[in-house]
């Protein structure tokens, strides 16, 4: 029997004539003239059968509800099973004995033909809540939800014209809200929250916090703000948990400005921030690159006497590593110890990653020993990081040794491990071993994913093996993997690189049919490909098409066009496009400046190369190793070796580590000017830094030697490698 709110009211009024309540129409509880005596006998009105008053029979039902009720109960008593009105009367007749009421309700439920009524559930919930039996009420409320009766129950509880008292209504509504949060039923949570607020009931702040957490975890920041604002406006005082949840929501969305404003509000309202508060903010600021402000917050924490931990420092260490500020990152690691904050495996993994990004893989590997000394076990991330570092350097031998060590320690390699190795092999052009590794994954390792095949497709394209790229792409489809936007973009890059723009545009149509409309990245791939092919007119037309579909060109688009003009030798046009880019408020990247510096430096226009080099730093764009290589190369060609060495030392002082191209440039020019000993010193320095020379390095080193001296030079190099004089 489904009762609407109106039916509930009608039933209440009708029951007054059948079975009198108290005289007040707004009485907080249903009251009967008949109240059970101390012997649990039902002193009910004469309208109820005499059998209802038989205490032994009634107690038998309650005490033996698991037995066959037909042997214990009369037909008149069983009418409570089929007639909700009678069930409600019986429950209210024992409302001061809640355990008895609950046992009778459970017995009635277990009988064949039980007629469920939302109102009967409300009555038993009211009895349990009024008597403080909230655990039992929890079980009944879960059943209400399971039976999909919660809408009517909410209607009854929020309506002040119904008999349930306000304090009991709030208890039950809070209970319902809590259960909904535990079941992650967000929309139902919001229904209860807003119905309570609308009817003048204030939810418990702990339940509000649970709702805020659910919204945060689902990245629904706007709705979280709405709930928070309603809380404050209605007089629900936020706790430190409320603030921390909202701060985390803002930081996850990158809205650190709003997070800092909320911190000020927290202070104004007299709510003291906790260490979690500051940890959340430090993390948010570090993710946004606001490292100085994050550092200041840690200082503020210390002044307030709050405890700092690895959770405080790790995000800032990661932030420093991401921008190459390794000295600051390692300095923080040391500061942690002085502050009593013990580094974790994550701390060391983060520093290892920063070192590997800068090519300092040997230093990163030493941290494994440091971890072992502190009884910390390196995890999969530790090994993946080092494998990544060695793969980037092209040292696949060490990468595979770590791979074997990882398996020896019973740490199962992940798809990331395999993908990193496959990427390293593809960069070296070793597609056969890369494909074998992919087959190993299929036969016994983690299944290859879209990234595995995308890496292999890219490697095939880079080697000019387009049939293999197509074969791998088709294999990905056969394995049921759906290519993503990047997989398609990789194929397009390959087609463009091989000069087949028509097939590349065909891939774009396929992307569109798969639900991937061209985005800025896709257009940039095409613009760069056309520019590389020298089709500047088509590239310009494509830029106009971008504008028509509402996509604004970015620094990548402009850099491709600038580079094309520079490659064509039209330096003037390249500068015109560069300043057009600036006039539109588009900020050049390090790549933009590097292509300009390289083109002017290699042509001997060093004054312009240096102008762009200093300008980029003034605008907060920091040069990388490629930028320095371009400038050093230009200076070497102009035989300005002192300046070249100054920049060589400057880059290392800034934590930018020279690579094999840096050394090859300097070795080449030293050989050109007859500085053989300096060339050898540079070569030895390369080896000491574990930078692998390539054929270009050796060609530069040997190109001015006569045949008789070449053998001597090789022998000398072998001694150097072996540590001899």
Automatic annotation (TrEMBL):
Listed A to Z, the keywords are: Repeat
**Which Pfam families does this entry report, sorted A to Z?**
PPR_1, PPR_2
Q: Does the keyword Repeat apply?
A: yes
This protein's superkingdom? Eukaryota
Query: Which family is it part of?
Result: Belongs to the PPR family. P subfamily.
Q: What is this protein called?
A: Putative pentatricopeptide
